[in-house]
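During the reporting period the student researcher (J.K.) took over the structure-prediction task from the postdoctoral fellow and processed the backlog of single-chain submissions. One of the processed entries is reproduced below for the supervisory committee.
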Amino acid sequence: MEPVDDGSDIIDWVYFEKSRAELGPGFIRILAYFREDGAKSVAAIEQAMHEHDTVALIIPAHTIKGEARQFGAEPLAQVAELIEQTARMCVETHRFPDELVPNVVELRRLWNRTVELFDKATNPLQSRAAPGVGGFGKKVANQGFGRI
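J.K. obtained the following structure tokens:
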């Protein structure tokens, strides 16, 4: 039997649910800001790498780091933190951090997977629950559907 990929290697679901409870009705709105800000930040980091602009790496990496931690996306936060810290050090030493290219690629992969998992957890049309779990009333076997 294949293991179920619930994304627990990407998202701390206990922390995610705690944040959801604490933020209450504003949770979905704040999560939407995360999506919007994060998408812009990842694109800005990629652009900064292409343009060899070390300073331009810092603020978007810092933004993703903080917002990812707010929702329990620690692996994403850790990669963003590495990019931020390395870029800060490179500004001080007046060099471009070419060594961050694999980390920026990983940031994009983690960003995409994180958003996918958040969508699955918050979209009522998608469910993390196993089929047949929960629901109302008795399970009805609709064996006669379409028959006369």
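The committee noted the following: Confidence is low (pLDDT under 50) at residues 128-148.
J.K. will present the remaining backlog at the next meeting.
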